[in-house]
């Protein structure tokens, strides 16, 4: 063997040793980042695409050519991936054993991690994630006049509601029922008769007038001077947004599908209805610190919702709640009650 071949073999041996050293150093760093328990909460991947292994079980090392899809967090709590050219290598640890996910090429920014085990609350309350074939696109983007959900991606289409109210934000649509003459101003008597048409008695309707106009009138006024009549101006209704709510309305009165769907995903285990217990958990979960106005507002709104729907089985359906957000359900309830009254059922 000549000198050149000997030098080349020594060079390859040194490079292999350096790569092995780098691999162990990187594994040690990843273990430190995860407090020494990498498999307790995530898949840790080395620069060569192989998950970090503490050496306790060499058989748990997956093949280096595994290419995995990141859309599978219904089976695990967290995942990490590694770019290899234009592909993503990813492994999922379940019960200390690697699980290969479906094969697909996907950019790193498409990886969505909804929960991690070191933060148990993120496992308990997982946010909504649209299905791959969902017609609801960009759920986190607020809709100006459509109360869009995965089941109703185009909002309320009954009697062309969304199109006929395309000049109003969803929050303004919510108030439209109470503006009987549609002049953009809600008087206290408008609120009283509106609640009465929805089935509330005289006392509860008076309570609603006091709560709503005492708290929500001034922020909507076009002037700094208080209104002696406590009127509410719909054009400025977005200024009445309070804290400790679901966040379904944004600060401009638009409808955020992601926040609405989160109500059912986080607090109702993905069901299409919520109970009073679910609502109680939601109000606790959404509660902001030092926000008594927001706490009271959220309590009043959900109490009024339950009394208005008054479900016999205690289940407030998602579609009914969505109809309250855009106000379309108010007209249906009022029409149904008026019809029943006309035929002597009330």
UniProtKB/TrEMBL annotation:
Keyword vocabulary terms for this entry: Membrane, Transmembrane, Transmembrane helix
Ranges of Basic and acidic residues composition bias in the record: 7-29
Protein name: Caleosin
Residues that span the membrane, as ranges: 198-218, 292-310
Region (Disordered): 1-79
Organism: Paraconiothyrium brasiliense
Domain of life: Eukaryota
Keyword Coiled coil: no
InterPro entries xref list: Caleosin-related
Stored PANTHER family: BINDING PROTEIN CALEOSIN, PUTATIVE (AFU_ORTHOLOGUE AFUA_5G13750)-RELATED, PEROXYGENASE 3-RELATED
């Amino acid at each position: 063997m000549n000198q050149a071949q000997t030098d080349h073999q020594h060079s390859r041996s040194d490079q292999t040793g350096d790569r092995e050293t780098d691999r162990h150093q990187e594994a040690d760093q990843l273990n430190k980042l995860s407090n020494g328990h990498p498999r307790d909460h995530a898949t840790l991947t080395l620069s060569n695409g192989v998950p970090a292994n503490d050496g306790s079980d060499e058989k748990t090392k997956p093949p280096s050519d595994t290419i995995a899809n990141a859309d599978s967090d219904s089976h695990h709590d967290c995942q990490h991936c590694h770019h290899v050219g234009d592909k993503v290598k990813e492994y999922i640890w379940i019960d200390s054993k690697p699980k290969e996910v479906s094969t697909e090429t996907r950019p790193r920014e498409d990886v969505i991690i909804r929960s991690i085990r070191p933060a148990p609350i993120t496992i308990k309350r997982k946010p909504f994630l649209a299905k791959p074939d969902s017609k609801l696109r960009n759920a986190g983007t607020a809709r100006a006049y459509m109360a869009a959900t995965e089941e109703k991606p185009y909002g309320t289409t009954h009697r062309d509601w969304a199109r006929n109210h395309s000049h109003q934000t969803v929050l303004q649509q919510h108030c439209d029922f109470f503006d009987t003459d549609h002049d953009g101003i809600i008087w206290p008597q408008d609120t009283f008769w509106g609640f009465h048409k929805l089935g509330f008695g005289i006392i509860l309707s008076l309570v609603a007038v006091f709560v709503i106009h005492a708290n929500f009138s001034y922020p909507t006024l076009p002037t700094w001077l208080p209104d002696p009549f406590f009127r509410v101006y719909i054009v400025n209704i977005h200024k009445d947004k309070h804290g400790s709510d679901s966040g379904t309305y944004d600060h401009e009165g638009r409808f955020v599908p992601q926040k609405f769907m989160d109500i059912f995903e986080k607090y109702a285990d993905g069901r299409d209805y919520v109970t009073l217990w679910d609502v109680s958990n939601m109000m606790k979960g959404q509660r902001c610190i030092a926000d008594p106005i927001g706490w009271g507002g959220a309590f009043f709104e959900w109490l009024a919702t339950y009394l208005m729907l008054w479900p016999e089985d205690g289940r407030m359906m998602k579609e009914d709640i969505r109809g309250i957000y855009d106000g379309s359900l108010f007209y249906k309830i009022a029409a149904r009650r008026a019809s029943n009254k006309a035929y002597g059922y009330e």
